[in-house]
Amino acid sequence: MTRFCRILSVCLALGAAAHCAGGTISLLNVSYDPTREFYSEVNAAFSKEWKARTGDDLKIGISNGGSAKQARDVIAGSEADVVTLALAWDIDALHEHGQLLPADWQQRLPNNSCPYTSTIVFLTRHDGKIKVKDWEDLIRPGISVVAPNPKTSGGARWIYLAAYGDALKKNHGDAAAARRFVEQLYHNIPVMDEGARGSVTTFTQREIGDVLISWENEAWLVMEKIGRGRFDIIYPPRSILAEPPVAVVDKYAKAHGTEAVAEAYLRFLYTPAGQELAAKHHFRPELDAVARQHAADFPPMELFTLREVFGSWKEAQKIHFDEGGIFDQISRSRR
Amino acid sequence: MNPASVPHSPLRAAPVPLPEQPLAKWLLIAVAVLFSAVFLLLPLVNVFYQAFSSGWALYWKALSEPDTGSAIRLTLLVAGISVPLNAAFGLAASWAIAKFDFRGKTLLLTLLDLPFSISPVVAGLLFVLLFGAGGLMAPWLEAHHLKIIFAIPGMVLATIFVTFPYVARELIPVMQTQGREQEEAALTLGAGGWRTFWHVTLPSIKWGLFYGIVLCNARAMGEFGAVFVVSGHIAGQTDTLPLRVEKLYYEFDPAAPFAVATLLALLAVATVVLKAFLEWKSRRET
Amino acid sequence: MSIELKNVTKRYGQVTAVEDISFAVTEGELLALLGPSGSGKTTVLRLIAGLETPASGGIFIRGLQVNGVPVQKRNIGFIFQNYALFKNMTAFDNIAFGLKIKHWGRQRVVERVGELAALLELESLLQRFPHQLSGGQRQRIAIARALAPGPDVLLLDEPFAAVDAQIRQELRQWLVRLHQDLKVTAIFVTHDQEEAMEVADRIVVFSKGRLEQIGTPREVYETPRNEFVARFVGVMNVLELEVRASVARCQELEFPAHGLADGQKLRIGFRPYAVQVSGDPAALRYPAVLRRTYFLGIMLRLEIETPGGLVIRSRMSKEDYSRLDLADGRPISFQIRAYRVLSKEGDPLANEVAATHQMPPSLGEGI
To answer: Which residues of A lie inside 8 Å of B (Cβ-Cβ)?
Structure first.
């Protein structure tokens, strides 16, 4: 029995050791799905810089998942020092449901706390059987579209809002027409994955669907990882400017004593080095100098913001995604 | 019939063959073989095929990645804590259930089956609701600076929960067929409770116990759902092997997820082989 | 050593397994606890061993109450129905188990096991495991194991139930001899009245958790205290009679019933040896046909059937059988020489034993 106790205590000690990572400073970044490759490079670069600057070893953990789910986990106690999520609404939730950071968190960093932006594009199969150029091509009968579920995925909400906003603009602000458009669009989506990454896998590995609606950076990742010969990226003439924000989670960072390093980490994203990495991973850089350098990678297109079309996340959420909102209504009409 | 001369396995009683019915027999065998080939063997072979499709070098590279290494270590740690605890608990519970009559025995048996009937994801959520921020235990945990959920203790707890019944479920029938006579014999010969347990009870159930531990371990190492919910999904810190496989699969790596999956597949094969060995051993010794 | 039970009761939940049992065992005695299954005899044995605790009453060993003494401290040898050998140990280790607990030295253990192995003819089997042994061999190892630490009393639970008939016979003789040689007090449980009669000095008969009678085999057989004992110990023919005109009848069989009212029902019983048979169909009172003869060694059991269809069992020696020139299917005649009244309808002492009535030889004329 004593032997068993000893073994158990050793195991527990090992577990504890694994968690504190042996005395170095550790930082946890809870992020959304498509950022794994980007942040693993950022983490390495920033750790190096931090070591040079302060002499401290810094170990940065990265957790990826659906944006809304990640926010829920943080509220439930996943002690992130920083969050880098798909949309501001999910970070607002950290304030609203957990008082983990102040309401004005978005004012604390430049560009509404968005060090990089992105947009929503299409990915088609290279065989050229299906040709799409613009949003209205997606509602043609017989076309099968893949996109994640707006109820669970942040990227999916950007997708929905991009489609709705474009239709609104084309119909000169006719909300009924825009609603008809998204209804027809979602009729053409046979499977909705929980997260953006899941949809990419559905489209590329399981080979379901003719068109994938996706984050711009995800689409490029597919091109790079799976092969340019198999898919084409289609930029619609108009799409939404997706603004994935970042924030220090004050409550946890304070408890861990990592406020300074957490803020430095986020500010690093705005530096030329950070911006270069963002551009490399096909996030649109916020810094003009870097953006100009990579202009060729980001074809010009008309981008509208959430604010100008939908006002705020709160309103968008209430009208479109809340229980009984437009998305629920059109989902019900699908059956 | 003379009951003492009937050979019986402590694990499973030998089946009585039905009268020969050639057509039905071969049809049933064909269905069983085909079914297991398509649904069991084929995916297993495919895992290895995919893992090695890009060559040995990439296979080793995938396995020697630091995050995969830490996933292996974490998996071993979680199993290393939860399996001994469940073995000890299973032993106690099966002993109580098989050898004593007490009030609430049915309740204990029902509770024992709970992890089988609850979805692992729900089990994980139960722990989040209990230990997560705003949960029942949150104020106490916070006051003592203890972190359970989204950390290793939570993953151990979730694993203990889902692997809870394996040892007990395996041992109860073994202990029931053993009866109490051998232990009573030891008592009449002057042996104390502890000595009876080590010299009489434990040796006679050891193969059943090992078998339960093997199953418990396989499930502990392979558990996905419950651990998924309570894991913080921090690469290199709170990813077990199954979580690592899932992550790699979503990173568009053609071979890496399968390479890591081969470890789990090997665990499964080892479990099956061990199981067969233990059954053979226990049959031989009866 | 002397053992005494005083008003012992044992319950399992709502079920009373043993109720208000009192009896005493004298030093060196070989006692049988006899009864059908569920009669409480095994429970009594386990109570003496300390494997069960009584709900009330006292158990005394050599005058000392042992209710609170744990089984390990009672110095008893217990032999289980299914041997309960330790299957992970060799025969040697099984026998040596109790000795090792007593911290005997290696040399003494080897000597003691050798001694018992010689006594029970187990020398060549000591290195075998239980699963490599026959039923009889296992039983002898169980006996050796129980005897090894030198118990004050040997308790045997249905010791021969699980072995073949032939080995059972051998083992019974073993037990009698062992008991004589070792002069150890022994109590054994059996449901086989023949076994109890053959082996035991005295028999305790149980039924439904109650003690029905205690006595020597002869006492129990010849003067059973009630119908249960009478029927359970030995074979008995039982008839249901109804009184009409001072004669109690069951079909053509008639018994005197002076002073009993018409319509009164009563049960009588008679042993097979009390049924006299003749090969001449007219020689004795009742005609019948010999249906079937069973050979039980030197004695034979006869099943005879009256014209009315009553089947009655009789018993005789082989010599008598051939002298009377009997064969299955032959017409015969018979009469009943002795019987006892088992119970009368409405009699509160229904199980009370009545005196044996000798049948008047001139019965036929009497009625």
So the answer is: 4, 7-8, 11-12, 14-16, 18-19, 21, 28, 30, 33, 36-37, 40, 61-65, 73, 75-79, 98, 197-198, 200-201, 204, 221-222, 225-226
